[in-house]
Amino acid sequence: MTDKNKDYILTTQHLTKSFKGFVAVNDVSLKILRGNIHALIGPNGAGKTTCFNLLTKFLDPTEGSIFFNSEDITKEKPAEIARRGIVRSFQISAVFPHLTLLENVRIALQSKRKTSFQFWRSEESLNDLNQKALELLNAVELESFHKQLAVELPYGRKRALEIATTLALEPELMLLDEPTQGMGHEDVDHVMKLIKSVSSGRTILMVEHNMKVVSGISDSITVLSRGSILAEGDYQTISTNPEVMTAYMGTQATESVHE
């Protein structure tokens, strides 16, 4: 299939971000295929989070363009980006700790319906959202905990709850920022399975350090180093690339690329 015939949901052209002379992202041209799980990896300081911030417009690029579904979104604001269906989850679990799991997901559903700040609405009037919230909790295997407070959840389940609240916004493109950061092996395996299961019918772009996750569920991988694209391809291609292994030396053991 030629490049012109490929269905790219998100592309960037020569994306660049400078901070007072320091170039954090340098001439990055990404191509994210619709329906893929695409991993953005690289050693610390490679520009991954800055790139995410550019894509979700928490930062404006110094140069370059961003296209979503072939439309130029470079100058749009974060809220406009979210309304288009680009939804990001953050490195630190972003849930309301003293609300139940059901209430957390229901708030996200209210946000989608634009009733978030209608505090005068009775609780009964929002109960029609409960069934959808339970369905989303079921999708991440948390339905049986729906009455539990988020603060009581172990870390791995909090990240699963965050995925549920992200799904409530009906994303066409999910951006996951370090979804397994700080997790033990059992939680990593569980969240990997969840990401794979919720990827059906949508596209996922994730920043991830854990090579077990990258190799296990990614369809495509882009490696950043010093703000620039160093390599692209499937896991087999990037894991045998000498430049990739050199870039990881000193910041991450070479063998981690082969986990």
Question: Which key terms come to mind for this protein?
Answer:
single chain, 259 residues, alpha/beta, Rossmann fold, six-stranded mixed sheet, 9 helices
Would you write up a description of this structure?
The protein has helices spanning 48-55, 78-84, 101-113, 130-139, 155-168, 185-198, 211-217, 235-239, 242-248, and strands spanning 8-19, 22-28, 31-33, 37-41, 63-68, 71-72, 86-89, 173-177, 203-207, 220-225, 228-233. By secondary structure, it is of the alpha/beta class. It has 2 domains: 1-85 and 172-259, 3-Layer(aba) Sandwich (Rossmann fold); 95-170, no CATH class. It has a 6-stranded mixed β-sheet, with helices on both faces. Strands 1, 2, 3, 5 and 6 form a 5-stranded antiparallel β-sheet that branches. The two termini are 31 Å apart.
Brief rundown of the structure:
This protein has 259 residues and is an alpha/beta fold. It is built from nine helices and eleven strands.
> Which percent range describes the beta-strand content?
15-25%
Question: Main β-sheet: number of strands, strand sense, barrel status?
Answer: 6 strands, mixed
Strand order across the largest sheet: 7-8-9-4-10-11
Mind telling me the C-alpha Rg?
19 Å
- Number of helical regions: 9
Shape call: globular
Helix content: 25-40%
Helix/strand/pairing class, anyone? alpha/beta
The separation of the N and C termini measures 31 Å
CATH-scheme architecture of the largest domain: 3-Layer(aba) Sandwich
Report the CATH topology name of the largest domain. Answer: Rossmann fold
Average pLDDT figure: 88
The count of domains is 2
pLDDT < 50 stretches:
250-255
Please give the oligomerization state of what you see: single chain
Q: CATH homologous superfamily of the largest domain? A: P-loop containing nucleotide triphosphate hydrolases
- Element-level helix/strand string: EEEEHEEHEHHHEHEHEEHH
CATH class of the largest domain: Alpha Beta
**Total E-strand runs:** 11
